[in-house]
Amino acid sequence: MDDGLSPILAVSLMSPNTTSEFHIIASFAGPNLLGSLVQGFETGIIFGQALRFWSSSQRESAIVKACVVYALIVVTLQTSFSFLQAWNSLVVNFGSFVNGASPRWPTKLQPVMNVLLAAPLEGLLIWRCWLLTGKSTPILIFFVLAYVASFAFPIIQVHEVFAVDFEAIFIVVFNGLANGMKAQTYQLEPILICFLVVPAVLDISLSGILLLFFFRSRSSVRARRFRKTLDEFIIVIWEAALPPTICTIIAIAVYISTNSTTLWFILVLDILGPLYVIALFVTLNGFHDVKLRNKEFDLESSSSFSSANATRSDSEPQDILSTWAREASASVSISGAGSSWFSSRIRVPLGANSTSSSSSGFGGSRMKVEREHLRVAVPQAARVLFGCPSLRDGNNKSPRRLPPDAQERGGRRFDSEIEGGDTASAESVSGEEHLS
């Protein structure tokens, strides 16, 4: 038997010795009906996310906006095709097993529609992962081959499906059911399995590299604010990567475990494409939320920074250290997007109190502040992963820097105090001398 026909033939022959057409209606009516309903629900979520994106998209690039428009058009077409197929199967051809079970062109195009919906998100993540790995050639070759394969297998599958005359096949199947025909043996389709496995491998690889990058960066950052921002990035990646990956794995498990004797795995494929669009908007809107929170935090810090210029009270050392660390990290030029800054680390204890050596986070111990490691992972991760020059400013403007003489005078004095462990002399340094 032709492998390309085996799943549908097997579904049609599952009914035991009966001539009732309605006895096997669940084999095609169930996936069609639920697939349309779930896709409609997903499309509603997508348009809600799209409105949220457009309300704050003034600073987004033209490429990102074009990808969003493209994804909205394709997901609208796919959902329309799904409802059209459900209408033809359950309303127009109600009561006719042959006409109702035979897939029409909207259903046959579903594999290609899915890969078209996944293309923007996967292409964006491939580019970012390539930058994060130091523009590694082997990594790029692997991702490009997987990306091309994710297009090739659905196209081959659709070509095979369009070459089949399903109505003629189901006429034979229905006559066989009337004569007590038994289900025939068949094999799993390798093209369909590859069509499911390749995107799953690509999604897991992309998500794994991004998560590994942020976890390693987080482990080397001591500043509480930066760690919190990295945690927010990690959550955004999990929210974007998990749903489509889990959906693909479920489709593979259902298809293989049932030995392709059911069409319910098609339901999982129907809802897979819109999940990629949801993941795209989760990534864009999630990053915008993180950037907005950091901008508000910087505005609050600027207010406290201005008040500290006039006088420095002993009750505010934490704000001074926090501001100094942020300004020092912002004043360092960010260059290179590879693994060379995986080892960047911050050793400024933001919660330390320099007024007392017994209660101080310094503890009177020697501690070296490494200026070259103040290139914090957060602003560079924003620039590399999301194409934003700076995480600190929503308008992509350069952050405010200290005057050169103040940077040299305050930084040199701060370093000498920390390295010498002299908390008494550190206390005598005025706020004007550090931060004027």
Automatic annotation (TrEMBL):
Keyword Transcription attributed: no
InterPro entries attached to this UniProt entry: DUF6534
Pfam families: DUF6534
Residue span of region Disordered: 388-436
Key words of the record: Membrane, Transmembrane, Transmembrane helix
Residue ranges occupied by any DUF6534 domain in the UniProt entry: 200-285
TM segment ranges: 62-87, 107-127, 139-156, 190-215, 236-257, 263-287
Record's compositionally biased regions (Basic and acidic residues): 402-416
Name of this chain's protein: DUF6534 domain-containing protein
Originating species: Schizopora paradoxa
